[in-house]
Amino acid sequence: ANGLGVNGLDFSPNGRWLACGTEYFVSPNGLIVWDLATRQPKFTIAPDPGGRKRLPVAGGLVAFHPDGRTLACGGGGESVCVYDVESGQLRHTWEGGQWGPMRGLAYSHDGRLLASGHLRHLIALRDSSSGAVVRMLDCGEAKMPNFSTVCGLSFSPDNHLLAAVNEGGTVFLW
User: Fold this and answer.
1) CB of 162 within 8 A of CB of 139?
2) 115-167 residue pLDDT tens
């Protein structure tokens, strides 16, 4: 993936795949999933706004579900696309609200939740099966109006805590 403007990387839990989310404006490939045994692409999905392959047009965020067979991606838009890794087929597209472009994406370790962090200081927690938003979290624009973009997310191993960091370096725990 040399020279492709990779913005996001994630290994599958089973170690078979490496997902690379690339920047739309740098590369014609929005998502590449590499087969680590063969060192060849398993599948590539180019951004196609308004087309059938509804990959967000920028950002390159990727997150494997703990099952190792499901991959979520997001980026410049508010939508989350969920792919079947074996077939490369789109399973779901979950639209966002008026939250701003996505800047962070993470599955809980039990696979029940998918968190997406957004430009407008918000985190959406989704049911990973249905895509339904079960809770919205706020990183507090009023507290730090100039540094409110959520740019990193991570669940604790026991799934009891979600950590988020904004572009100002403040870490939030829920």
Assistant:
1) no
2) 998 877 889 999 999 999 999 988 765 555 555 677 789 999 999 999 988 77
